[in-house]
């Protein structure tokens, strides 16, 4: 499954740790927006738990992390301003 993950986090250290973690599992497309491939539900569950653990360490109750599932149809219909394709990933990804 393809996911678009975006966040708004006030605490600087929490924001930095979240960004570094997401850079390991996905592709940064903007400052706080990542495209991620999660092949199994268990991968998404582990990712949610890891992100929640980081947020909890910094007691950032205002942190807002959103997951948007990208279907084949939404991916095909999506593009950059110049018309380029989005979400080009390697064939496999290890979490």
**Which strands sit side by side, in order, in the main sheet?**
2-3-1-4
CATH class: Alpha Beta
Alpha-carbon distance between the termini? 13 Å
Report low-confidence residues grouped into runs of 5 or more. Answer: 90-95
- Give the name of the CATH architecture: 2-Layer Sandwich
C-alpha Rg (nearest Å): 14 Å
Estimate percent helicity. 25-40%
Strand content: 25-35%
- At the fold tier of CATH, the topology name is Alpha-Beta Plaits
The major pleated sheet works out as: 4 strands, antiparallel
Q: Can you give the mean pLDDT? A: 88
Q: Which class of secondary structure composition applies to the elements? A: alpha+beta
Estimate nothing, just give the exact number of structural domains: 1
Count of helix runs: 3
What does this structure look like?
The relative contact order is 0.25. A four-stranded antiparallel sheet has the order 2-3-1-4. With 95 residues, the chain is an alpha+beta fold. The C terminus is likely disordered. It is built from three helices and four strands. It has a single domain, classed as Alpha-Beta Plaits, CATH 3.30.70.240. The longest helix is centred in the middle third of the chain and has 17 residues.
Which key features would you list for this structure?
single chain, 95 residues, alpha+beta, Alpha-Beta Plaits, 4-stranded antiparallel beta sheet, 4 strands, globular
């Amino acid at each position: 499954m393809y996911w678009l993950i975006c966040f708004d986090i006030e605490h600087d250290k929490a924001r930095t740790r979240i960004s570094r973690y997401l850079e390991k599992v996905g592709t940064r497309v903007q400052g706080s927006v990542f495209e991620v491939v999660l092949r199994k539900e268990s991968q998404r569950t582990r990712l949610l738990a890891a992100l929640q653990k980081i947020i909890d360490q910094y007691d950032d109750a205002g942190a807002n992390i959103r997951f948007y599932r990208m279907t084949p149809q939404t991916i095909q219909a999506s593009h950059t301003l110049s018309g380029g394709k989005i979400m080009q990933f390697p064939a496999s990804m290890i979490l």
